[in-house]
Amino acid sequence: MKMKFDHVDAGRPFDWGRTSEDYARYRDIYPPVFYEKILNRNLCQKGQRVLDLATGTGVLPRNLYAQGARWTGTDISAEQIAQAKRLSRAQNMDIEYLVSAAEELEFPPDTFDVVTACQCYWYFDFGRLLPGLRRMMKADGSFLLLYMAWLPYEDPIARASEELVLRYSPSWTGAGETMHPIPVPESGMEGFEAVYHEEYRVDVSFTRESWTDG
């Protein structure tokens, strides 16, 4: 499925389905502290029902599965969901997955204790998304936005990798990242209260094979 957004890569079309096998092989990169900070907020734990938006290959549900939450992962890409199901089956994990745009999800009211969204906030139409989330979430539920990026001005390998990407995709909007809060539009935020945010640095190690595919 080809998609495009005017604010992403100057409207250049892209298709996650074409890279789903690579996502399944290489994208599970979040360090332990990434998950520890989620759990320290008492989120995604036993007794909670969690909805993971734009789940991709199910990285978040699979890595937090042992904590006992009941997970549902959704993604607009059928190929991504197929990989998520394959990886979960291989690990004997009972995770529900379905193909859907986040803005079009339909669950009964008060279904979820937690909704997570990792590496995907810039694709959402928050004006359509948030009213649906308010309905599907419990009154004391939590909406957790997560994002991890390399810092090209602080790391020479990240900078060299970014230069290579820009050589072939000069309109790439992921370039030039710095540490910043995740931007959430004020409009449509009725019913949500911002209670916590944090930005932090962490070293992530890659092997030559995992970074370059040989």
End-to-end separation in angstroms reads 28 Å
Tell me the helix content: 25-40%
- Stretches where pLDDT is under 50 for at least 5 consecutive residues are none
Task: Enumerate how many helices there are, as a single number.
Answer: 7
Number of strands: 5
- The H/E string reads HHEHEHEEHEHH
Mean pLDDT: 92
Strand order, biggest sheet? 3-2-1-4-5
Envelope shape: globular
Strand composition percent: 5-15%
Secondary-structure class: alpha/beta
* Rg computed from alpha carbons, rounded to a whole number of angstroms: 17 Å
- What about the largest sheet? 5 strands, parallel
Notes on the structure:
With 214 residues, the protein is α/β, with parallel strands linked by helices. Helix content is 30%, strand content 15%. The chain contains seven helices and five strands; from the N terminus they run ααβαβαββαβαα. A five-stranded parallel beta sheet has the order 3-2-1-4-5. The protein is globular. It starts with 19 loop residues before the first helix and ends with a helix. The model has no long low-confidence stretch (mean pLDDT 92).
